[in-house]
């Protein structure tokens, strides 16, 4: 793999750390600024909303610029956001810093996925995308526990100073290792990028992303309550169980990328079916600590194994205009996160218990699988009606794109 992918992965690591580490530091932040838990929670929800805005709005604004220059500019904004967070004198300034950093999140992963795919041969694109997202999964496995520990020992601001340094390292790496990717006459421009959304398969891909990721992260949002109140784990063991979950994310991302390089459609169908089964088994056996731990790892593995394939699918059907569609898919991941958490909150409020959130996840994952199968069926029918003899663009290592609806 090209060294440029390492630079992208370091950027992904820093962004992932920024997104997730704040959850472990909220008590310290709230105490420092004298705000309640609800206000502190906006540091998480405000970030997520800003990710969705940046993924579409910011990506749309930069479609005509050299992608390397865009990525480096995004990393400068990311560094500025975390620097503001580190020195924030008030809660409002900290929230502003979080928003600035979040605006880069969706655009970075959306554009970065296109850049990563262009760095390798067509049959290795999904693996390259998985390599970039490996930074995000590593942030969950290693970054969040150590970032939380750093913040608890030296103050929460120290964590944001550390993230700022990581951002500087990623900026240097991208500036020196990522090759220039200027806009060519073949690039679609903003009008062409928007035109990709006339493709029915692009919208179906977004739907599968929302449902698939909403299923896993809806359950994950309340996982600490499930592990302690249902499975019987001590609160002190939850961080280590989350490390196991992170290991599942890392392994699933790597395996999913390798498999998607062979067949996106087949990989997504198998992984979504597996995720549905795992979550159903988890819901049924959550009272067993051993089964809960095993299911947690498998949920992370199957859940994140979808990421390279989902990103590849939408980029493929966007054809020559993949940048904005790729960014929209990052927004769809975050919309799924929010929707899954909302649905889980409803079932808990209805008195169905914390394990009900896992049943919610299983249902959403099943919906994603059904949506995928319908989308693939429609794509095959269009190819047959058009008398297309070429291979499925999502199979047999073909990445040529299709803009049929």
Automatic annotation (TrEMBL):
Mode of membrane association: Multi-pass membrane protein
A Gene Ontology molecular function term of the record: transmembrane transporter activity
InterPro entries: MFS, MFS_dom, MFS_Efflux_Transporters, MFS_trans_sf
UniProt domain Major facilitator superfamily (MFS) profile: residue ranges: 4-383
Gene3D superfamilies tied to this protein: MFS general substrate transporter like domains
Keyword Protein biosynthesis attached: no
UniProt-annotated location(s): Cell membrane
UniProt main location, coarse: membrane
SUPFAM superfamilies (UniProt xref): MFS general substrate transporter
Domain of life of the native organism: Bacteria
Keyword Membrane recorded: yes
TM annotation in the entry: 42-63, 70-88, 100-121, 128-146, 158-180, 201-225, 237-255, 267-284, 290-310, 331-355, 361-379
One Gene Ontology cellular component annotation held by this UniProt entry: plasma membrane
Keyword annotations of the record: Cell membrane, Membrane, Transmembrane, Transmembrane helix
Name used for this protein in its record: MFS transporter
Species in which this protein is naturally found: Pedococcus bigeumensis
Taxonomic lineage: Bacteria, Bacillati, Actinomycetota, Actinomycetes, Micrococcales
């Amino acid at each position: 793999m090209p060294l440029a992918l390492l630079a992208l992965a370091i950027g992904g690591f820093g962004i992932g750390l920024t997104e997730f580490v704040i959850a472990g530091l909220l008590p310290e932040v709230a105490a420092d600024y004298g705000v309640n838990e609800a206000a502190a929670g906006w540091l998480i929800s405000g970030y997520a909303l800003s990710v969705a805005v940046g993924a579409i709005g910011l990506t749309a604004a930069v479609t005509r610029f050299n992608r390397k220059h865009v990525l480096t500019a995004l990393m400068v904004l990311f560094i500025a956001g975390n620097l503001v967070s580190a020195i924030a004198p008030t809660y409002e300034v900290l929230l502003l810093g979080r928003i600035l950093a979040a605006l880069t999140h969706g655009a970075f992963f959306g554009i970065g996925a296109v850049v990563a795919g262009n760095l390798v041969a067509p049959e290795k694109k999904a693996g390259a995308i998985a390599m970039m997202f490996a930074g995000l999964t590593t942030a969950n496995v290693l970054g969040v526990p150590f970032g939380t520990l750093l913040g608890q020992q030296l103050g929460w601001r120290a964590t944001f100073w550390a993230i700022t340094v990581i951002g500087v390292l990623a900026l240097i790496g991208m500036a020196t290792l990522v090759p220039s990717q200027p806009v060519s006459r073949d690039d679609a421009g903003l009008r062409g990028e928007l035109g990709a959304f006339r493709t029915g398969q692009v919208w179906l891909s977004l739907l599968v992303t929302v449902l698939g990721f909403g299923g896993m992260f809806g359950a994950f949002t309340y996982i600490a309550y499930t592990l302690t109140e249902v499975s019987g784990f001590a609160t002190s063991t939850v961080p280590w169980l989350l490390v196991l979950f992170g290991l599942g994310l890392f392994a699933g991302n790597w395996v999913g990328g390798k498999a998607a390089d062979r067949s996106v459609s087949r990989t997504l169908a198998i992984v979504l079916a597996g995720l549905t089964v795992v979550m159903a088994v988890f819901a049924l056996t959550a009272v067993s600590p051993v089964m809960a731990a095993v299911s947690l790892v498998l949920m992370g593995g199957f859940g994140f194994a979808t990421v390279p394939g989902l990103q590849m699918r939408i980029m493929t059907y966007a054809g020559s205009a993949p940048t904005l569609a790729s960014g929209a898919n990052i927004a769809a991941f975050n919309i799924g996160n929010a929707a899954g958490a909302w649905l889980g909150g409803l079932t808990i409020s209805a008195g169905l218990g914390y394990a009900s959130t896992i049943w919610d996840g299983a249902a959403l994952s099943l919906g994603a699988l059904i949506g995928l199968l319908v989308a693939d069926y429609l794509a095959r029918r269009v190819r047959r009606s058009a008398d297309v003899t070429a291979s499925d663009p999502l199979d047999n290592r073909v990445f040529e794109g299709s803009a049929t609806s």
